[in-house]
Amino acid sequence: MIKTILKLLVGVLGKRLIKAGLEETLLKNQAYITAAKQIWNVVEENFRIAEKVEEKIKSKADEFDKMLLSKFPELTKDDVAELRQAVAGEVNQTKQAVLSEADALKQMQDTNTQLQAENASLKDQLSKVQSLVISTVNTEVQATA
Predict the structure, then answer these.
(1) Which of 1, 21, 81, 103 has the fewest CB atoms within 10 Å, counting from its CB?
(2) pLDDT tens-place string over residues 58-108
């Protein structure tokens, strides 16, 4: 009976150690993500102006990888690539929302310009119809007088 209790205690303690290890890993991953976001912002600031978009993107990715690896040398290239994609996805998600709003605003401005042109054309046609009606009425009044 004591052997059974000891086996159960060893099992419970082993599971607690595993759980503690997992929590430490999760906290370490959170530290990686936080540091990756900070590095992303630094790289973003450093590469605001560039000649070509392709160079800018390639250079930013390389610079991000280099800075993250210098901060966390234990990471593999795959780990760095995953962190870069995670941070880029999060950052670009907000940029996409801003771009969508900008596209909607541009579309509304184009529609507004089109409607203003159509309104001016209709006002011109209405003015012509009114002058034609007035001249027709004047001609009829003169003919009956």
Answers:
(1) 1
(2) 677 888 888 888 888 888 888 888 888 888 877 777 666 666 666 777 788
pTM of the model: 0.38
> In degrees, to the nearest 5, what angle opens at C-alpha 67 toward C-alphas 87 and 35?
45
Cα–Cα distance list, 76 to 50, 83, 119 (Å): 29, 11, 63
Tokens of 78: 């795959």
Q: Are the C-beta atoms of 37 and 87 separated by less than 8 Å?
A: yes
Rounded CA-CA distance 118/11 in Å is 80
Residues in the chain: 145
User: Half-sphere exposure of residue 139, counting CA atoms within 13 Å on the CB side?
Assistant: 6
Which DSSP helix (H) or strand (E) runs through 86?
A: helix 77-144
**pLDDT tens, residue by residue, 8-66:** 666 665 665 555 554 566 456 777 778 888 887 878 777 765 555 555 666 778 888 88
Nearest-angstrom CA–CA distance, 130 and 128 = 5
Evaluate whether 84 touches 61 at the Cβ level (below 8 Å).
Answer: yes
Q: Are 121 and 74 in contact (CB under 8 A)?
A: no
